[in-house]
Amino acid sequence: MIVLGLDPGYAIVGYGVIDTEKGKHRLLGYGAITTPAGMEMSRRLLEISRDMRTLLDTYKPDMVAVEELFFNNNITTGIQVAQARGVILAACAERGLTPVAYTPSQVKQAVVGYGKAEKKQVMEMTRMMLHLNAVPKPDDAADALAIALCHAHTAGSHMPLK
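^ thats the sequence. predicted structure below, dont judge the formating
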């Protein structure tokens, strides 16, 4: 099963793609969709949408896992990330995919075994599980790979995002 993990954002969308079968994981690719600072939000969303379609067409994932949004103190940033996430979900829907959402705690639990693990622990376990020499960069891509691994470990226990 090919799983595309996504860490949504409007400046950086991290992505990670793995092939997983019978508990074995193989890295297919990772990286980030980036949009320049100062670019009009509608243009950023268009760029994210186009790049998402390219990713989906390139890797042809069976499943997509995306990090659930959580709002902290900056509601403006949260709204902008939510807009980008909406574009991501729409691109997936165009390709007949229904993304599954995971909270940061669920990702930590699935990858490290502890829902309050430190980010550094998650990145190191992601590196080890995928037999990599170094933690993937940027951090958003490493996060996306952790999200993909989370889905690979828990795919049978979650319903698709509505």
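Residues 41 and 80 are 8 Å apart (CA to CA).
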